[in-house]
Amino acid sequence: MTEHLRRLTRQNEPWSWSEEAQSSFDSLKSALLCSSHANAGRKSSMLCESCLDRCRATM
What we know:
Structural class: alpha+beta
Strand content: 5-15%
Helix content: 25-40%
C-alpha cells in the first residue's frame, strides 16, 4: 500500500507525484480514517515515518 509513497523519499531519485502515489495516499488515508479510534469530528494529527524497508504512521 505504501510502496509508491516510500519511493518519493529515496535519495537521488527524481520526485514525481504520480497517479500511483496519489492512489497509495488515498488508500492509506482511507485505512487510517476507518480505524476504530478515528473521529472525523475531532482535530487530529498524524506523524509519518519511513525508511528503506518500512513505513509507519501514528495518529
